[in-house]
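Exercise: predict the structure of this protein bound to fe (ii) ion.
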Amino acid sequence: MRGLSDTQKRSFDQDGVLVLPDFFTPDECDSLRDRMADIVNAYEPSESDTVFSTTEQKHAQEEYFLTSGDKIRFFFEENSDPSLPTNVSLNKVGHAMHDLDPVFSNFVRKPKMAQLARDVGFKDPLLLQSMYIFKPPKIGGEVVWHTDHPFLWTDPPSVKGFWVALEDATIENGCLWCLPGLHTLQPKQRFRRKEAGGTEMQIFDNTEFPTEKKIPLEVEKGTLVVIDGLLPHWSSANLSDTSRHAFTLHIIEGSANYLDDNWLQRSPEMPLQGFEI
Ligand code: FE2
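Solution:
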């Protein structure tokens, strides 16, 4: 198996982002899409509190989110109409398919993924979070400029995202945009659990990212994009007629300290695992 070239490793170090076309075959992408279609078909919407809500439901929704770190749960687009069928109104499903579902586990635990993790610097990679992102046509919402480390904080910073295009991603359907090289900036915020319950965003620096030099990552189905945990990225709303399905896996370093007031926590029965199980 061919790993990253030295040029690719250097490019990732310099830019904080690396685009790898044809990392997955169309068939591998379709296997994940088909499996998610089955998971969505089997889902009973009544078991969750959706975004269509009163203030009281907000609390239940937050609990549903905060306890999803070791489960497979369903999150809806804010602008979706409650009368729409589930499969066209989902924003994402997360956050532990990679440990709970055999098809997702096989997808993330392919030897080429473990090799890539080593090549971008992991010594003892732990698979923290998986998300299936739908970005549905017309209603798929914007994801504002952010970096991932503030949401999945380790000391020292270690999280990296493996973002996989399961369909072609274009400017029209809401592809990722990023600011290459700005992964060198200090984190501006941190999302964490409050002692009294609920969550808060701590702000260390309330300046905006300088987005003049943003570049679009228009990529074809099967492309994997490695995103450093401190690389600013953004995606626009999907106003097109096509969906933009993607899968993300977030990995942290085993020796780094994962903070116990991070929003995503595992129960003791389901500790984080690496590529080998
Ligand atoms: Fe992100």
